[in-house]
Amino acid sequence: MRSHTPAILAPAGDKTTFLAAVAAGADAIYCGLKLFSARMEAANFSIEELSRLSRLARSRQIDVHIAFNTLIKESETPKALRLLSKLQQHVIFDALIVQDPAVISLARQAGITQDLHLSTLGNLSSPAGLKSARNAGFSQVVLPREFSLDDIRAMAAQTPEDMGLEVFVHGALCYGISGRCYWSSWFGGKSALRGRCVQPCRRMYQMKSEKHRYFSCMDFSADVLAKVLKEIPRVHTWKIEGRKKSPHYVYYTIKAFQLLRDDPSRKKEALTYLDYALGRPFTHYNLLSHRIQNPLDHQDVTQSGLFLGRIKNPAAPFFITKDALFPEDLLRIGNEEDAFHTIQKVTRSVPQKGKFTLPRQLRHKVRKDAPVHLIDRRTNELTREISVLDAELADMEKIPVRPAPHTDVSDKNPLNTRRRTRQHITDIRVSRKSQAQAQKSGASGIWISGSRYSTRFDKTTWLWLDPSIFPEEEILCRQYITTALKKGARHFVLNAVWQISLFDNPAPLDLWAGPFCNIANSLAIQELKTLGFSGAIVSPELDKNTFLSLPESSVLPLGVVIEGNWPLAVSRTLSPGLSPGDFFMSPKKEGAWVTRSNNLNYIFPNWPLDLTAHRKTLAQAGYTCFITLEEPVPKNVSLKNRPGLWNWDLTLL
Questions:
Q1: CA separation for the pair 328, 100 (Å, rounded)
Q2: Residues 334, 341 contacting (CB under 8 angstroms)
Q3: Neighbour-count burial for 266-304, b at 16+ CB within 10 Å, e otherwise
Q4: Alpha-carbon distance 499 to 469, whole Å?
C-alpha cells in the first residue's frame, strides 16, 4: 500500500465488474461474499470465484479487501467462522472490512492475520475513538461520508502512526448516517445493517399536499477537491462506492480519480469521465464547511443513470433520446417504484435526438412523461479488455472448495466468568430534558447533548451520549464528561463503541454500550468487556430468538429497550422542504415526523416500539435493565395505536 499517494479502492459486485476494476488499473478492489456482506442485493462472490479472481488481482499487484461487514446474529457465529476459515484457506486477500466487533474474535479463530479495517457502519466519528479502534486490532478506519475536509484533518491529526484512514471520494449517499438507519428494518424486517436495505428513503413522501423525495440524496463526489484531499496526511485510501453499479461506472470512475490524483491539470477530462459514468447528479455535500451543498436540494431528479428523455404516446410508447444509443446499452423505463418499471436492452444504434420505440408489450402500460435513463453501456474498448481478462481467468486452475467441517466458536475467554445468579432489575426512563428526580420505580436517564452540553443531572442519573459525535463536538462532550465525573457521575450509556475512548479510566465507572451500538451476539459483548464496558443494551431490531439467546452466553449484564420512540434514521442533513416538527406520510400511509436534537436530525415513526408484553419473558431470559425512551411528540402528530413489536415475531433478514 502506498504511503505517499492514496490508493484508489474500487467496488466490485460481480465478476464482470471486478474485471472492469482490474482493467482500469485500480490499486485495490473491495467485494463481498454471498453471506455477511452489507450489499446483499449485489450478486457478490463465492469462495471459488474469489479464489481465482484474487490470484488475477495479485498478478497485477492489486490488493483485495473482503467486506465482511454485517451485523451477525448469535445463531450465525458458527457459520461465519466456517466461512472465514474457507476464505483464509482459499482466497488471497489483504484486508477484512468489519462492522460487528464479533468478527475480531472470529477472524483470529479462523487464522486470519491480514489487516482489519473498521467499516463506516462501525460509526467511528470522532478522533478519540481511533485509539480504542487501534487497540481492538484495526489498522484502518473508513470515515463517515458526512465529514468535511476539516473533520478529516481533525481525524488525521490524531491517527496513530501505524493506522490509516479511508475516505469516500465518489458514490451514493444514504440519508441516514452509516450504522444509524433502521428504516428498512422497521418497515419490514430487512435490515440495512445486514445488507438488506430496500431503500425506503428513495420513495416519494407526502407532507400536507406536497409530494416530494424528501430523503433521496443526490450522489457525493470529491471530484476537483481531490487535490485538497490528497494533501491530508494519514489518508491512505480513496474509496469509490458502488458494489451494485455496472462495469462501465466502475471503469470510468476509477479513470477519473486516477487523473484527479495523478494529473490534476486534466481535471476537465476527469469530470467528463464522471459525467459519463452514469451515476446520479452529485454534490460535494459537507466537504467544504463554508459552502455546504445539501444533497437533498433537488427537484426529485435522484435516479441513477444518464437522463435521456420522457415517454411519449403510451399507446405506442417512444422517446426522443438526448444522447446516442448503442447496441447492448441498458435503459431503465420509469422510476423504481412504478408498477410498469422495466429494464430495456438496446438492440440497434440510435443517433442523438433519434426516436427509440419501446416493444409492443409495453403499449398502454407505461405512463406519459415517465423518465428514461441510460444505466449501463458496454463500450467496445471496455468489452475487449474484459474479454481478455476473462480468458486469462478461464485458464487458471480451479481450486476445489469443500464444505468446511463443523467448527465450534471458541469461548475460551478469561473474561467469560459471569455467573447466572438472580440480579436486581433496573428500569431507566430516558428523556431529552432534565427530570426533577429519579422515577419512583426506577432510575432516570438524560441525553447529555441538550442545550449544547449544558444538561443538568444528579449523581444517580444515567448520562446518555449521542448516536454520533462528530469532531468539532468532541471537545464539548469531553468537557461535559470531565465536569460530570468531578460532580460524582458514575453511570454512562455510550451509543458508539468507540466513545469508550472519551473516558481515561473506565474501570471505576458504570459504562454501558447503548442500543445504537447494534449489539447482536455474545462475541461482540466479549469485545465490549475487553474494551472496558460494564454492560450492554442490545440492538432493539433483533428478532425474538436472538433476543432470548443472548443473556445465557453473555459475559456482561444486558439491557433492552422495552418501549419508546425509536428513530427510523439519524441524519446530519435535512431536506429544504422539511422543518423540525413536520409530519409526513409514506406511499403506504405510514406516518413519521422530523425532529432535531443537538446537531442531528431524527426521523420518528408515529407508532412507538413496545415490547412491554414480553417483559416477563425477557427478564426470565436474563435481561436486568429495561429502557424506556421518551421523545417530545409535536402537537400536530398523533401516535397510532398499533403493535410496536418491530422484528420480535419476524426473522430478521
A1: 40
A2: yes
A3: ebeebbebbebbbbbebbbbbbeeeeeeebbebeeebbb
A4: 8
d(CA 507, CA 509): 6
- 645: its cell numbers: 413489536
Task: Indicate if the alpha-carbon torsion angle 489, 490, 494, 497 is positive or negative.
Answer: positive
Residues 6+ apart with CB under 8 A from 74: 520, 521, 522, 546, 549, 550, 553
Mean pLDDT value across residues 475-488: 96
Can you give the length of the chain in residues?
Answer: 653
pLDDT > 80? residue 114: yes
- The confidence band for 379, taking pLDDT boundaries of 50, 70 and 90, is confident
DSSP 3-state of 62? coil
Report how far apart the first and last C-alpha atoms of the chain are (Å, whole number): 36
Write the DSSP symbol of residue 363. Answer: T
CB 638: neighbour CB atoms within 10 A? 11
d(CA 331, CA 374): 5
Quickly state the pLDDT bin for 418 (edges 50, 70, 90).
Answer: low
Taking only the tens place, the pLDDT of each residue in 64-82 is: 999 999 999 999 999 999 9
Residues sharing a CB contact under 8 Å with residue 26, sequence separation 6 or more, in sequence order: 8, 9, 10, 62, 254
Name the packing angle between helices 77-90 and 102-109 (round to 10°).
Answer: 50
Higher-confidence residue of 455 and 372: namely: 372
pLDDT at 653 over 90: no
Angle at Cα 600 formed by Cα 594 and Cα 601, nearest 5°? Answer: 15
One-letter amino acid for residue 85 of the chain: S
At 435, list the grid cell.
427530570
Compute the distance between CA of residue 433 and CA of residue 286 in angstroms, rounded to an integer.
Answer: 30
Question: Apex CA 644: angle with CA 181 and CA 193, to 5°?
Answer: 25
Tally of CB atoms within 10 A around 82: 18
DSSP H helices in 505-563: 522-531, 544-553
Q: What is the DSSP letter of 76?
A: G
Q: Are 70 and 120 in contact (CB under 8 A)?
A: no
CB 372 within 8 A of CB 333: yes
Three-class DSSP labels, 572-626: CCCCCCCCCCCEEECCCCCEEEEEEECCEEEEEECCCEECHHHHHHHHHHCCCEE
Cell representation of residue 419: 455467573
Q: Would you say residue 492 has pLDDT above 80? A: yes
**How far is it, in rounded angstroms, from Cα 437 to Cα 443?**
9
CA contacts within 13 A on the Cβ side of 219: 24
Q: 15-24 vs 380-394: helix axis angle to the nearest 10? A: 110
CA atoms 503, 505, 507, 509: torsion sign:
negative
What DSSP designation does 315 have? T
| Cα Rg of the chain, angstroms | 25
Q: Which is nearest to 630 in space by CA: 567, 564, 560?
A: 564
**Average pLDDT of the residues in 440-469:** 91
Q: What's the chain's average pLDDT?
A: 93
CB 127 within 8 A of CB 474: yes
Higher per-residue pLDDT: 609 or 39: 609
Query: Is residue 601 over pLDDT 60?
Result: yes
